[in-house]
Amino acid sequence: MTVPVGILATGQNFGERLVTNHDLEAIVDTTDDWIVQRTGIRQRYWVEEGTGASDLAVPALMAALDEAGLTPDDLDAIIVTTVTPDTMFPATACRIQQKIGAANCYGFDLSAACSGFIYGVTVGAGLMSDPAMRYVAVVGVDVMSTIIDKTDRATCVLFGDGAGVAILGRVEPGYGVLDSYHRINGQGGDDLIMPAGGSKLPTSAATVAARQHYVHQNGGEVFKHAIEGMADACRAVLNRNDLTPEDIDLVVPHQANVRIINGAAQRLQIPLERVAINIENHGNTTSATIPSALHQARQAGRVKDGDKLILTSFGAGYTYGSVLMQWGGALNGRA
Ligand code: ACO
Predict the structure, then answer these.
(1) In terms of residue numbers, what domain contains 205?
(2) Catalytic: which of 182, 225, 254, 282?
(3) Residue in 260, 241, 274, 280 with CA at minimum distance from that of residue 320
(4) Which residue minimizes the CA distance to atom 10 of ligand 1?
(5) pLDDT digits (tens, 9 = 90+) for 94-130
(6) Alpha carbons 76 and 319: distance in angstroms, whole number
(7) Which CATH number do you get for residue 50?
């Protein structure tokens, strides 16, 4: 029987520049009141110019390795989930591997936008069906400040820069990842998109002039589908495992808008006391929202051994899903 896989440790890191809603009032036609009322965001952190995804990720990864009592050489794989890689290629996973000096691993980047981290956990756990794989790092990192149009008030107020990491390792039976449910729906592909810079529309003077190298979105559509998608994905893992919302100790949702989180929680009939929310301080950090919210919930003592958690997300693509886990049971290298 395959030994189950769980999260042994977590880490986080954010851009060094605090940007409050009041700071944004100075650059676009917005107000602190509008942003707080419509999104729940009060502040976010942006990087200084020149900081790439790998720079943001390394401190988060090193902290997580430290908590797990591991060194970079212990890693068998690094999965980086991001829509803002250092470069289109090579993979940011390779940059991170080189920066931390991990000598024994492979790795790759995974593109699933806001759902990247939960897809990464499922893929990482799958890789570990190979008994030779002992530790996999899932690195959710995005430097959204580099792809948002700072003249577009509808998008630039939403996003922050951050990295969140989980170290996957083997855990006792009954613990770790119990189930995953993931779906994609390309019908929503144009609702949240960076139109230029890919093979379909390579960057040119014309695409830059048209500001197509920035995030474009149909906010209302994304809003509606995000509530439905996360609620449906949570219900799927609950039903498949004969669980009810009362059995879940903590839901860690993607942090796009506090009204999306409230809407999904309401549909699931899960009280907000059992939902991890950190959007107020960080905005939407795309791939980093779930691992950082999980990390902060752990720091606040809200995650105990034996707790049942659901991680759930919805993002560009559309991509969405949920991961059901039982926290704890680390084997500390005993398997
Ligand atoms: N400040 C002030 N006014 C604003 C701002 C702003 N920053 N942004 C938009 N407005 C205005 C609009 O122009 C509009 O004005 P109008 O009525 O004169 O035309 C008015 O506010 C209402 O706009 P709506 O788009 O209807 O506002 P809504 O309440 O729907 O909120 C928002 C917009 C926050 C974008 C919401 O739709 C949303 O969160 N959607 C999800 C998008 C998202 O999260 N994308 C990120 C990635 S996807 C993901 O992570 C799931």
Answers:
(1) 178-333
(2) 254
(3) 260
(4) 154
(5) 999 999 999 999 999 999 999 999 999 999 999 999 9
(6) 27
(7) 3.40.47.10
